[in-house]
Amino acid sequence: MPRLPQVPLEKAGILGKFAYRYARKRYGAVPEPFAVAAHHPGVFRASAVHELLVEKGSRVLPHNVREIAVYRVAVRLGCSWCVDFGTMLQKHQGLDIDRLKHIDDYATSPVFTRQERLALAYADAMTSSPVTVTDEQVAELEGEFGAAGVVELTYQIAVENSRSRMYSALGIVDQGFTSGDACRVPMPTTQTHEKPA
User: Fold this and answer.
1) What mean pLDDT is reported for the chain?
2) Any idea where the Carboxymuconolactone decarboxylase-like domain is (predicted)?
């Protein structure tokens, strides 16, 4: 249970109600971070707009590279909500979620591509405290993804660091978007009606 109560739909205000309905339609349930952030409408609005813009703007990297790097941050920081939700997103994008159990062995595991290994190592270096990114590492990433790809990857990793730390601090834990290897939530394209909150 989160350290702050979730704001129920009837008390979420106009923006909150719209966001809850959108999230329920898209993901099958209202993500708990939404319902907790709704205590502060200004921050909630800024966060929702930011997340949509980041999603729309992130089009340079292959989605498997972007998603695996973000997932790695969640694992490193122990954000069970982010791991749960990230697994669901990867499944919905048609990515192999079975390989996620090998994430700690990414440097040697054959289930990860060279590009993914580079992104995972970068996620580790950025998530370390202090940050351990090197000039050589950025140069190698630029050679692989270009400058725009490095900026996108860096931003995505930084945003996930923020999410994971915030959700962990607020006691937001896995919500049941995944269960073992299978999603409990149906693919968004097969969703025919909204589920109750």
Assistant:
1) 91
2) 59-124
